[in-house]
Give the backbone structure.
Amino acid sequence: MAQKPWDGRFSQTTDKMVEKFTSSIDVDKALYACDIEGSIAHLKMMAQQSIITQDEAAALLNGLEKVRDKIENGEFQYSDTLEDIHMHIESALGEVVGTVGKKLHTGRSRNDQVALDVRIYLKKETKAIMDSLLDLQKVIVTTAKQNIDVVMPGYTHLQRAQPVLFSHHLMAYYEMFKRDYERFEDCLKRIDVMPLGSAALAGTTYPINRDLTREILKFAKVSDNSMDSVSDRDFVMEFISHATICMIHFSRFSEELILWSSSEFAFITISDGFTTGSSIMPQKKNPDVAELVRGKTGRVVGNLMAILTIMKSLPLAYNRDMQEDKEPLFDTVNTLKACIDIYTAMIPNISIHKETMLNAAQKGYLNATDLADYLVVKGVPFREAHSVSGKLVGFAITKSKELHELKLEELKIFSDLIDEDIFDFLSIEKMLSRRITHGSTSYENVRKALEKASHLLNI
């Protein structure tokens, strides 16, 4: 049986049930590379500070590389007896290098060790997620460019509202994912802090050089309070919070793709490679990727609730509750990365049905607001113009016609100011071109937005 690091204090062995219950190795073994990276930096620093000899450091470093190889070659044996990845690696190191392996843990605690491991892991994963988000943004912008002239109905309350460019609609998601990127970029500042050297909570008596360890590990700064260093999981909460917002954006995007691909909308067709069929209904083509992304949003929202609840009442400093931070964190990272990757691959494989979208934009009285604007230009106060336009919509409904399908004499029943130029004014082309304010849906504005995004993304 492997010796516990705290055996000196205890007269009885740990109950097997307790070993199994307190073990986290099934989860935190994913941190093995981070743990070894942190230990290598710690050893180099201790040798530099003469806390251990250069020969001891060389033996320990060589031993850690052998342990790493054993793990990566699938030759490593895990056991609940050793609880976590830190104790597994330390025990395995002792088997390789002998008694000198017991010096690895000098000047640190599992408390600052796990805090370091999680930060190394999350720093790398956050950068990878940011890179993936850039790829997703590029795909969205490219798709918008390819469909710059496609017109569709814009919606509020899921009711047809006003015509917009499909490219403008897509660029709304570009803006969302751009903000997600910026949130992760800002979050990285809080992740990129080196806690090692804080020990259990009060620091260490050994003459360590924390700034040297920081340099070796390429962290931006050293943590400033040893108690906060080992008990802080703000950065985990912040990351999962940002991931949740990003997943909400994916869920909204998914909802629209699901609606648009239905027979009722028929705005798009998602390629066969990103859809599935039915086990009983041969005609079915289901948008399962979008549905799963929408569903996985619930997992990430749940992970946020989990980490917030874990941390909400913990006194300083470290508490074993914090062992539970890794499952929601790892699941969030893996889920978000998978969703970004699948959407980056799926979006270019969506067919856009231009004529169907245009036909939809020409129905449902989407030019009612512009009719009111037409009267405002003629000098009618907006509220009065709004009322006239509303009455005309009601009249058109009784005639089963769109506003632009009414005859001039029918339009004049409601206002003598309406003239022949109304029909040109209410054309989709003119309605779009008049949306000239910054951020609006005119062709010129959308082109500028696409040019700006293309420059930022270097595409």
